[in-house]
Amino acid sequence: MNLLPLLFYIVAGVAYGLHFTRRSPRAGRMATASLAGAVLIHTFVIGMQTMELGRLPFVGAPAIISAFVWLLTVAYLYTEVSTDERAMGVFIVPLLVVLQAASALGDRVIEPAAVLDSPLLAVHVMSVLFAYAGFALACVVGITYVLLFRELKAKQLGFFAARLPSLQVLDAMNGRAVGIGWLFLTAGLAVGAAWLFQLPPDTLDTPMSLFDPKILVVLLSWFVYSFELYARRAIGWNGKRAAWLSALGFSIVLLNLVPVGYFLTESHNF
Fold first, then answer.
1. Cα(first)–Cα(last) distance of the chain, in Å?
2. Does residue 40 register a pLDDT over 70?
3. How far is the C-alpha of 227 from the C-alpha of 211, rounded, in Å?
4. Does 124 share its domain with 251?
């Protein structure tokens, strides 16, 4: 079922590419409409899977990645509508296409174990995924900041300067996205720990361990973003340094979503 949203994301990606290169208002409107259609279809697919299972279908790496794509799309569309700025779409939508394709390769609904049917676990998963969506936006904004910074530094006002917001706007967007993502990640980790501690002994087939790769990597990403927020306020690491930290943090998030989530985790395979 994840193939249908993937097709819509591909169409939206092509439309955003046309808008970015040609600066065509019509292509921009078509891009936004295509992405809105993609998220509506994706919402329908998740809703059908929820009805089939009787609970949110966020179990297994493919379903988690699909949910992340959906949340990132919603977050980006909100940002685009609220700022009336479509330039970021050409950088965001290709990421959506790649991740949704990875999800579609393992497209199957997994019946979750009874122990996973918990409101606390649902809040944990949704909070962490929303945090990842914020970090993805921060990464893309950070990369565009670096591209624009290099163009301005070379005193060649060309391709990016004509299409991207100012450095100040991009830096503010980066800081806001990281701050929101950090709050949701912190809340998600706290709720996940609360869920784990209230489980009766020997409930999980494989005991949860802090040394599980998925837990270690998410804690590493939390420390990276915590340092970025501290560095912004305490030592003035904004602009390019903050942009690179955002890119580093999201690289760790992607590591957790795909290779670790698919192949390396043992106790945290939901």
1. 20
2. yes
3. 22
4. yes
What tokens were used for 78? 């909100």
Residue 146: CB partners within 8 Å, gap ≥ 6? 240, 243, 244
Number of domains in the chain: 2
**Residues 98 and 50 occupy one common structural domain:** yes
Q: What is the CA radius of gyration of the chain?
A: 19
Q: Where are the alpha helices (DSSP H) in the chain?
A: 3-22, 25-53, 61-83, 89-105, 119-153, 167-197, 213-234, 240-255
* Statement to judge: residues 201 and 130 lie in one domain: yes
Clarify whether residues 132 and 155 are in a common domain: yes
Is the whole-model pTM more than 0.85? Answer: no
For residue 152, the model assigns a pLDDT of: 84
Q: Residue 167: give the domain boundaries.
A: 114-270
Q: What is the DSSP string of 110-170?
A: ----GGG--HHHHHHHHHHHHHHHHHHHHHHHHHHHHHHHHHHHTT---TTTTTS--HHHH
3-state secondary structure of 254: helix
Identify whether residues 7 and 65 lie together within a single domain: yes
pLDDT digits (tens, 9 = 90+) for 53-91: 776 666 677 788 888 899 899 988 988 887 777 888 888
